[in-house]
Amino acid sequence: MVSRFSGAFLRAVLIILVVITPSVILTDVSSDAKQMAALVALFAGLLTFVEYNTEAPSLIEFRDAPPFNRVRVTMLFLTVLCLSVMESGRAENTSLSALMQAIGQLVGQSLDFPYSPVRLAKLMLAGTATPEQVQAVRNAAGVAYLTSLISLAAFVTVLKIGGWPMRDRMFNVWINLPTFDPTAGDLVERLERDARVNIILGILLPFIIPFVVSLSSSGVDPDSMTASQTLIWTMTAWAFLPASLFMRGIAMGRIADMVRHMRRAQGAADRSATARASRAF
Predict the structure, then answer these.
(1) 117 near 206, Cβ under 8 Å?
(2) Is the dihedral of CA 98, 104, 105, 110 positive or negative?
(3) DSSP secondary-structure letter at 179?
(4) Please, what is the Cα angle at 275 between 270 and 279, to 5 degrees?
(5) In this model, does residue 197 exceed pLDDT 90?
(6) 77 CB neighbour count, 10 Å cutoff
(7) Other Cβ atoms within 10 Å of 100 Cβ, number
(8) Which ranges of the chain would DSSP assign to H, the alpha helix?
(9) Which residue has the higher pLDDT, 89 or 140?
(10) pTM of the entire structure?
(11) pLDDT confidence tier of residue 167, bands split at 50, 70 and 90
(12) Which one of 8, 174, 183, 225 has the fewest beta carbons within 10 angstroms of its own beta carbon?
């Protein structure tokens, strides 16, 4: 119980740090915005603490299947941190912010080609956007998208090296997938179907979101979109949500493979036991 409490508390503190990172790094944040960020951080930290401190989860998936959530939180933190450092150069230019802005410009230009997610992200802005505002969105989108791609590559590498999920350790579907009903139909088929759906959504969402926004309205107001905190969290969500779905699809596919392997092993053991019993008879 003590270990569970301390682990839940540590995770809650880390989530709070992730949420308040822009307010801490940016120097032009108002007191009201800081108070709002602190309130959201406390709520997110409390939710994380409750989820990890109870035996029966309700929302957070893969609670007892590291390193899935660790990679996701690291990706989220790195995205928020890089964008916050880059945006801090607007008010007070430092060597670190200048370096991050140079990296953002290089990445944004490299990924800004026809039909790319970064090119489509610029479509979310209204036609009244200035070249500086378009460049700010492009650079932020490039950094966020590159961070998500690197995190995905690291996630796949960790899974391959570590052999996740461990077949010599019990994987509790109810605890790690609390919103997934393992009794409705064949478990392997449903896992594989959900894995394919999540992977497809993870690939398409960076393209679909800007397209839908550009079609549903004349575009987002450039002044509100390029405000530091709005730009940070918008680009973070735009890159983090598809990458998270892609990671979930990969994880569910590997769980399906694990269940199929266990079924085959159990079937072989049952056939062997039946054969020995028939010979003994």
Answers:
(1) yes
(2) positive
(3) T
(4) 150
(5) yes
(6) 18
(7) 22
(8) 2-25, 31-53, 68-88, 95-111, 117-121, 131-162, 173-176, 187-216, 222-225, 228-280
(9) 140
(10) 0.89
(11) low
(12) 183
Tokens of 197: 């759906």
**Residue where the block lists tokens 């266990």:** 262
SS (H, E, C) 192-229: HHHHHHHHHHHHHHHHHHHHHHHHHCCCECHHHHCCHH
Task: For residue 39, give both structure tokens.
Answer: 């309130």
User: Around Cβ 263, how many Cβ atoms within 10 Å?
Assistant: 12
Amino acid, res. 229: Q
d(CA 164, CA 153): 15
Strand partners, 125: 220
User: What does each C-alpha distance from 27 to 22, 31, 48, 86, 270 come to in angstroms?
Assistant: 9, 11, 28, 12, 66
Say whether the peptide bond before residue 67 is cis (omega within 30 degrees of 0). Answer: yes
pLDDT digits (tens, 9 = 90+) for 211-259: 787 776 666 888 888 888 999 999 999 999 999 999 999 999 998 888 8
Are 77 and 41 in contact by the 8 Å Cβ rule? The answer is no
Beta bridge mates, 220? 125
The DSSP secondary structure of 115-154, one letter per residue, reads T-HHHHHGGGB-TT--HHHHHHHHHHHHHHHHHHHHHHHH
> How many whole angstroms separate alpha carbon 69 and alpha carbon 61?
8
- Token representation of residue 86: 């880059």
Radius of gyration of the chain (CA): 23
Residues 6+ apart with CB under 8 A from 81: 21, 25
Q: Where are the domains of the chain?
A: 1-55, 65-271
* Distance (Å, whole) CA 70 – CA 93: 32
